[in-house]
């Protein structure tokens, strides 16, 4: 009986993770739609969020409950997104600015993962002895770690990812002419990636939307 219960719990747990992942993807897709419709507001929101997260990093630095170098690099990782605001919502995927922001974000994620889940038995890794207690307290709650990662590591990069548009799609030579240019020009990078994976054609989507509108009206 114990084996059956463990097997059911294991399968149910992974099913819940799958459902949560699908809900997250659907939510990001909706946010991408909103960012396309209200690009100026999206840019202002990202700018305010970026500066707010940097201020929160400074408060953590003053508090001293987390390693100084991790917090300092977290600030650097967010400042790396400032150049992308100059051309928002358009960006060049193959550029130093894009690769730089992506690189420091991944390294920032790695450093915080190493801090929270790494086997750092040497107390010299911490700036102060009470940082060990803070780490243990946060490790006791998965929600605390996920919340920290969501706010201090993932929120700003994910916001840029779902709201940025490939610069090539904004050029007449990269998107064609007429209505085709307009529809492709306004498609975000994340939304275009999802549509490519799902094999969704923009013209078919527009026709489907017109059919849906004809049903309601």
From TrEMBL:
- Membrane topology value: Multi-pass membrane protein
Keywords annotated in UniProt = Membrane, Transmembrane, Transmembrane helix
Q: Which domain of life is it from?
A: Eukaryota
The answer to keyword tRNA processing applying to this record is no
Molecular function via GO: COPII receptor activity
Q: Where in the cell is it found?
A: Membrane
Q: So where does this one cross the membrane?
A: 12-32, 145-164
Against Pfam families, the record matches this protein to:
Erv26
Q: Which GO terms describe its biological process?
A: endoplasmic reticulum to Golgi vesicle-mediated transport
Cellular-component GO terms for this entry: COPII-coated ER to Golgi transport vesicle; endoplasmic reticulum membrane; Golgi membrane
Family assignment from sequence similarity? Belongs to the SVP26 family.
State the protein's name.
Answer: Uncharacterized protein
- What is the scientific name of the source organism? Ditylum brightwellii
């Amino acid at each position: 009986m114990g084996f059956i219960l463990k097997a059911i719990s294991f399968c149910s747990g992974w099913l819940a993770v799958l459902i949560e992942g699908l809900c997250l993807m659907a939510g990001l897709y909706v946010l991408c739609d909103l960012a396309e419709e209200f690009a100026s507001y999206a840019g202002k929101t990202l700018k305010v969020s970026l500066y707010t997260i940097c201020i929160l990093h400074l408060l953590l630095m003053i508090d001293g409950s987390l390693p100084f170098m991790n917090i300092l690099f977290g600030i650097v990782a967010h400042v790396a997104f400032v150049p992308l605001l100059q051309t928002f919502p358009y960006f060049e995927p193959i550029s130093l600015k894009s690769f730089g922001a992506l690189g420091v974000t991944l390294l920032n994620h790695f450093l915080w993962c190493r801090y929270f889940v790494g086997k750092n038995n040497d107390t010299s890794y911490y700036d102060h002895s009470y940082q060990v207690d803070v780490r243990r307290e946060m490790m006791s709650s998965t929600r605390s770690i996920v919340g920290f990662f969501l706010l201090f590591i993932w929120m700003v990069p994910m916001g840029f990812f779902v709201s940025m548009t490939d610069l090539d799609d904004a050029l007449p030579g990269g998107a064609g002419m007429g209505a085709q240019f307009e529809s492709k020009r306004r498609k975000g990078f994340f939304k275009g990636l999802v549509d490519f994976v799902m094999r969704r054609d923009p013209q078919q989507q527009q026709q489907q939307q017109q059919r849906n509108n004809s049903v309601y009206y």
